[in-house]
Amino acid sequence: MERDISLLYDRLHKEIYNSRVPQADEMPVCVSKDGRPAGAKSYMWIYRTGKMHNAAPIVLYEYQKIRNSSHPREFLKNYSGTVVTDGYQVYHSLEEEREDLRIAVCWSHARRRFANVVKALGKEKAKGTLANDALKQIAAIYKVEGLLSEISSEERQKQRQLTVKTLVEAFFAWVKQHQNAVLPKSETGKGFTYCLNQEKYLKVFQRMEMFRLTIMLTKEVFVASASEDVTGILLIQLMELRPVLLFIVLQKQQKQII
């Protein structure tokens, strides 16, 4: 049984390699029985096929006690291409180690702190705030990019240079202009800092024909794994083969919220 599961996992792992622009993420989890004090923080590393994958989406979860670069380095060691991630420095370090690996930071992480401000204030009170203005500009980038989703990859790339690139450059120029207008430790200030620190990686999608600007669905799938939108869930503990593996084959696309 364990051998069969291991072979299936390895096959799904290869399918993620073969997909176009896979996604990688990590999130903290609390585990009560792993030889450490109850509530000790561990991490679930999450890898999934990207938006351009034509077959049923595949998601692989790998439980680890620590959050260092050894885990994604091992998982991605035979992959060449672009991976969509958050701004965690570990992924950037992997890119620096290899010439055949490129990291593209997801825009959903860039908008998150601004969205937190608007949610806390409410839509009416948030009007006119820098956080709300930032969200509007990011939404405009998504909207124009969405209009390009159904055309050929070559034409999409041409149109990006005419439309999306202008919006992206305007957004970063605006952030730089207003960065000093807010406290660095405020939620909006942290959002500005994140965007500027990740500017290089947030712009990667503009240069790629086989890339669609979308939100990452790694954590969302983990949270929604018990919902009716996800089927085919299997949880296996393979203490001899790997620490703990949770892998999910999605048979239905997750709902996307921008």
From TrEMBL:
In this chain the Transposase IS66 central domain maps to: 5-207
UniProt-recorded name of the protein: Transposase IS66 family protein
Organism, by scientific name, is Clostridium puniceum
